[in-house]
Amino acid sequence: MKTVIVTGSAGLVGAEAARFYLQQGYRVVGIDNDMRARFFGAEASTRWQRDTLKEQFANYVHCDEDIRSPDAMERIFKTYSSDIRLVIHTAAQPSHD
């Protein structure tokens, strides 16, 4: 299945990008480790956005990984390698609450 990788998939921009491609029929592999919760506490968590994507779209796959982990990224990219059509990088260090 055609696959789009979206880093920061539970954030504002990442979730919208994921939703767009999911609606186009792609499988979206979202990579997001919810660092907002670690920086700003549970009330700032983006977990709700991740859960919404998982509930609304059967073709959304969530990976709770840190993009700075070469092993995790290698594992994900190997798993979906020949199906990947696009990578959208929206992961970033949270800068405000």
Brief synopsis:
40% of the residues lie in helices and 21% in strands. The protein is an alpha/beta fold and 97 residues long.
Helix content: 40-55%
Order of helices and strands: EHEHHEHE
Q: From the alpha-carbon coordinates, what is the Rg to the nearest angstrom?
A: 13 Å
User: What fraction strand?
Assistant: 15-25%
How does the major sheet shape up? 4 strands, parallel
Query: Strand order of the main beta sheet, please?
Result: 3-2-1-4
Shape: globular
Number of strands: 4
Which structural class fits the helix and strand makeup?
A: alpha/beta
Indicate the mean pLDDT. Answer: 95
Number of helices: 4
Tell me the distance between the termini.
Answer: 37 Å
Low-confidence stretches: none
Could you characterize the architecture of this molecule?
The protein is an alpha/beta fold. The protein contains four helices and four strands; from the N terminus they run βαβααβαβ. A four-stranded parallel beta sheet has the order 3-2-1-4, with helices on both faces. The longest helix has 12 residues, at 12-23.
List key phrases describing it.
4 helices, globular, alpha/beta, 4 strands, 97 residues, 40% helix, four-stranded parallel beta sheet
Layout: helices, strands, pairs:
Blueprint: E1 3-7, H1 12-23, E2 27-31, H2 35-40, H3 47-56, E3 60-63, H4 70-80, E4 84-89
Parallel strand pairs: 1-2, 1-4, 2-3
